[in-house]
Amino acid sequence: MARSREIPISLPSVDDLFTTQEERDEAARERVSELPPGAIDPFPDHPFRVRDDEEVADLASSVAERGVLTPVVVRPKGDGRYELVSGHRRKRAAELAGLSEIPAIVRDMGEDEAVVAMVDANMQRERVLPSEKAFAYRMKLEAMKRQGRRTDLTSSPSGMKSPGRQTLEIIGSAAGDSRNTVHRYIRLTELLPELLDLVDEGRMGMRPAVELSYLPKREQMALWYAIEAQACTPSHAQAIKMRSFSREGRLSGDVILSIMCEEKPNQAEQFRMARAKLGRFFKPGTSREAMEERIVRALELLERQEGRRGCER
User: Fold this and answer.
1) What is residue 74's three-state secondary structure?
2) Apex 95 CA angle, 92 and 97, nearest 5
3) Distance (Å, rounded) from C-alpha 152 to C-alpha 232?
4) Per-residue pLDDT tens for 96-114?
5) Whole-structure pTM value
6) Do the strands 72-78 and 102-107 form a parallel or antiparallel pair, or are they unpaired?
7) How far apart are CA 251 and CA 71, in angstroms?
8) In whole angstroms, what is the distance from residue 153 CA to residue 90 CA?
9) Which string of DSSP letters, residue by residue, matches 85-103?
């Protein structure tokens, strides 16, 4: 009787059948561990501030009661230490709650890959200050440019290695900003910290701040002194004028003060009336401009009628 021959066949596993190679590679790269917060160092030059405010205090209370529900993301540094990529507020809350360990996804990442991941994760915050977004965008742009000069980063998303306009579009698309908006935010990093604080505080608008970012630092400092003296910030038109004088080499402290003393359109005396008082005279959705035009016409008509009455007397 002939002996049957068995032919060995290698069958793929269930995981191989229902996951992509990229997903399997990613799973092999990371693991979840319980790490002491003291072994986790902050991300170098982290642009997003972690404040011990009411929000973090509430988070600390939740962490003390239920623990850290979403693991932080870290990358190994060696010698038993790790670098925090995302989860700075969760780590701080865990420290305030007195936790000895927190769950962490340990992921092997290069420096530039970690920068991109850090920025993308923190951009999902509910509130991001202009200065935070400005330095985050600059860090991501510099990281992507470095990636573009390398050939070993085969896992980079399509288009990541393209510098310039396309890179800014890629950066903005991740946070819902246009290429021009990304460029304007990055310009803010050229401002003196004192001037950038005014933008964060809402005392100076984005458009004038971008124009002022082109001034040399010594002229920005002179502007800061003028702002302190006048207790006001320049308008967009004034900022454009300062930049023009700067290009011509004529922007001195006296010139800055002179420009700052010019009356801005929003400083002119204005008459305001609650929209609710006027609502019954206009259709819903009527624009402010249309309402103003109608009110002026009505006042002109009233003026003519009162003039006629004066003549009849």
Assistant:
1) strand
2) 110
3) 51
4) 999 999 999 999 989 999 9
5) 0.66
6) parallel
7) 52
8) 30
9) EE-HHHHHHHHHHT-S-EE
